[in-house]
Amino acid sequence: MKIGVVVHGPNIIDSGYALDLIELLKTYGEVSARLGGTMGRTAVIDANLEGVIDISRKLVPSDSLKLFYDERVDVIFLLNYGKSDVTGQVFGYKVYNHFIGKISENDVPVIQIERPGEMDGSVIAWNNDLEIARDLSQKLNLDIVTPEEVYDNHIRQDDAGFNQRIVHGVSPGENIMVNSVVIGKTNSDKLTLIARDNHIVDIVGGELKSHGLEKLGEVDLESAIIKTGLLRHAKVTPRVLSNRKPDDFIVSFLDHAGEDVYKFRNSSLVITVGDDTTLISSDILYRFDIPVIGITDGDLDKVVEDGFKVKDSIIFEVESGFDDIIGQNVKREIFHGKQESYDFTDIDGVKVEVEEIIKNINCKYKINYIN
């Protein structure tokens, strides 16, 4: 039996269950595993599992499923460890339905293993009642949950309108991230986002952050990736990979946390714009020993438990609301609208140029050096 395994998110990896489940599935047949989503990449690196879970491509979970479908495996497993049984089951429902919209014939069984080790964990056979699903539910002591139960309990209420999106399993005081941009904070355990003309205009169960909405811009609410709370919960020891430095001093520009930070792994230095973007990207780039020059304004929404930064990184903290303005000027004057610059030989030269741009805007600032 050829088995494809799609691993989603850092929690299933940090908990150790991803590797345990892959080893268990090997007793049923030949197993190949790849990541679905992006936040699990650092967890795979920290766990030294690149040889077990393929992280070479940035793929949404449904595309990872489709790759296995195209490879004609006999069964596909989706491994996930959601914040709650509700969020995990709703996630699986959306991934599965995105997947079947991309294929011609729904003839490859898809089985989700959700929150293994938890009392509310489950096994969901999305399109085929295979014996292997029942066997695994017994071995893992997980309940079988049917797709009909997921729909009736969690999805049916979403039919209220195309421009509404109910977000399940939230808690008060959590950040709300849409496509990697923090757009507000919850104040209830029930959350609904409301959009008009592809823009989020209202929220029930939380407070919107206007600056975040500006950065988000247009969004398809139905297909948007929405997360609440921390992106990664586990306290981890980051694993730093040996990273050959390029011959040229390559400076890259990053102004949106939703970009694929891993494509900058061959840079010498990355300039990041925004508090959350700087926090997330510097934490990832730490694994590749790449420093950052961050332009922030102190408006930080904590989205990871710890944010690691490479020694010699420099953080400019400017007046509130000026980080984006300075970022635009940096992109224009240093990068000339491009994403890379080869005009410098070290971080000190870049720091001087960025500081000059800030001074020309007549903006108050302070500099934090990472030692």
* CATH fold-level topology of the largest domain: Rossmann fold
- Number of self-contained structural domains: 3
CATH architectural designation of the largest domain:
3-Layer(aba) Sandwich
Residue-averaged pLDDT: 89
Task: Note the beta-strand portion.
Answer: 15-25%
Low-pLDDT regions: 158-162
Question: How many alpha or pi helices?
Answer: 11
Q: Can you identify the CATH class of the largest domain? A: Alpha Beta
**What is the 3D shape?**
globular
Structural description of this entry:
The protein is an alpha/beta fold. The protein has 3 domains: 2-153, Rossmann fold (3-Layer(aba) Sandwich), CATH 3.40.50; 161-228, no CATH class; 251-369, no CATH class. The protein is built from 11 helices and 20 strands. A hairpin with a 2-residue loop joins strand 11 and strand 12 (199-204). Helix 5 crosses helix 7 (147-155). It is globular, with a radius of gyration of 22 Å.
Tell me briefly what this model is:
It contains eleven helices and 20 strands. By secondary structure, the protein is α/β, with parallel strands linked by helices. The strands form four sheets. The protein has a seven-stranded mixed sheet with strand order 3-2-1-4-5-6-7, sandwiched between helices.
List the defining traits of the structure above.
20 strands, about 25% strand, about 375 residues, 11 helices, 6-stranded mixed sheet, Rossmann fold, alpha/beta
